[in-house]
Amino acid sequence: MTDKNQHLVKILELNLAVFLISTSGVLGRYITLNPTVTIFYRTLLAAVLFYIFCKWKKFDLRIDNKKDVLKVVISGGLMAGHWVFYFFALQYSNVAIGILSLFTYPVITAFLEPIILKLKFSKSHLALGCLVLFGIYFLVPEISFENKYFIAVLFGILSGVFYALRNILMKKEIEKYNGSVLMMYQIVVVAVVLMPVVFFSNFTEVVGQWAPILTLAIVTTCMGHTLFLISLRNFSTTAASIMSSAQPLYAILLGMLFLEEYPSLKTIIGGALIMSAVIVESIRSIRKKSISDIN
After folding, report:
1. What is the pLDDT of residues 59-100, one digit of tens each?
2. CA pair distance 170, 166, nearest whole angstrom
3. Are 65 and 172 in contact (CB under 8 A)?
4. Fewer beta carbons within 10 angstroms: which end of the chain, N or C?
């Protein structure tokens, strides 16, 4: 196989990973359980599968010090918030609005990262932030807490904030530990945090939806995220983030195919504005890294 063909295979593998992760949108809409219940059983199953995978691959499961353990625990709590609010956003609206409001997280990251890591703030981020806000304007039919779509967008953005904080917190940890091991521990934390829902949920209803929950655990969480982590070996994080921008497209197409949810013109316009900001920020990150590598 030529180098060109090998690179094409790697691109296809990364896109497959993004596609598998994007199934969370249609599954989150299809499952009628309370999102906290769905996420708990999703993570319970995924934690077991990740542990088996890590033992099979003989990954080192040790975390060196208490500071790193604390970071993993906090990131797991943030992951729980990210997933729960995202699934509430899906239930209050549709796949398109849920995934697009979540995908404000790259620009949210661009704002939070300089503050948390004490880096220099880029003025261009202000323009990108305005572009995202303009996109959100098209997603929200009216600013009212009586409107479920408005609440859904707020939940989606809040999910994006949790996700951005989690990614920033784990930035240095990814360089020190195996990605699958970190993911496993974070998933365990999510399961522990949400464990009380067992006492308030109807297990019969959970059993009645075992198939989509199992699919969510295996296809989305384990296969999708593991394949994505493996693909990161072949691409820079920023290059992978640009290709990950296809996730809303895949999610919306799946919603149209399986749920017959067709985005409105306003949703398409708002989504285009948000994704434009995401892609511009990703390209800027690549160029910035290329310049720093040359210097």
Report:
1. 999 998 899 999 999 999 999 999 999 999 999 999 999 999
2. 6
3. no
4. C
Contact by Cβ (8 Å): 113, 285: no
| CA distance to 48, 54, 222, per residue, from 180 (Å) | 12, 7, 9
Helix, strand, coil % over all residues of the chain, rounded to 5: 80, 0, 20
CB 47 within 8 A of CB 187: yes
Interhelix angle for 95-102 vs 148-169, to 10°? 40
Tell me how far the alpha carbon of residue 215 is from its chain's centroid.
Answer: 17
Contact 148, 91 (CB under 8 A): no
Q: How far is CA 56 from the centre of its chain?
A: 26
**What's the rounded Cα separation, in Å, for the pair 126 and 110?**
10
Predicted TM-score (pTM) of this structure: 0.89
Tens-place pLDDT, residues 190-237: 999 999 998 888 989 999 999 999 999 999 999 988 888 777 667 655
Distance in angstroms (rounded) separating the CA atoms of residues 269 and 70: 41
